[in-house]
Amino acid sequence: MLRFGGGAPGATLEDEAMEAQAKQMGMNLKEYQLAMKMRERIATNLGNHRSTGTAFAGAEEVSITYDGNVKPISVTIPEKALTLSKEKLQDGILTAWTGAIGESQKAAQREFAAMQADIKKEIS
Fold it and tell me: Where are the strands (E) in the chain, listed by range?
């Protein structure tokens, strides 16, 4: 089999493509592979994370859930809560939203901190 392109003997086109991507980003292949591994891990962890904020609007619990990417996943407003005054319902929704989004942001911060620690460990 004849191979052209300067890749190492036995290298595949995928290996060559990764090396080209790494070079384009100013990284060596090992750094690039580590970056891609960390990117995949953080994307999975943030996508799987759920933060739920709750509040009582009268006697009914209003809840809002976000993932770790600060993307809303669900909102629950019970029928009874819809009979409350606009102000009470609005306060309940805002309280639930603030709790959910705050926890989601904290989860993202924890994931990025863990990623940085893992990168330091891998590079050392």
Answer: 50-57, 60-67, 72-76
pLDDT in tens, 46-101: 999 999 999 986 667 899 999 998 899 999 999 888 888 899 889 999 999 999 99
Q: What is the spatial distance between Cα 74 and Cα 52, in angstroms, rounded to a whole number?
A: 9
The set of long-range contacts for 1-7, using a CB threshold of 8 Å and a minimum separation of 24, is none
Give the pLDDT confidence of 8-53 residue by residue, as tens digits.
555 577 778 888 888 898 888 888 888 899 999 999 999 999 999 9
Task: State the DSSP H helix or E strand holding residue 83, giving kind and residue range, or none if neither.
Answer: none
CA atoms of 27 and 30, how far apart (whole Å) = 8
Listed residue (46, 57, 55) closest to 104, CA to CA: 46
**Run of H or E residues at 96:** helix 86-123
Residue 111 corresponds to which tokens in the numbers above?
């994931």
SS3 62: strand
Q: Which helix (H) or strand (E) holds 13?
A: helix 13-24
Beta bridge partners of 31: none
Predicted model pTM = 0.71
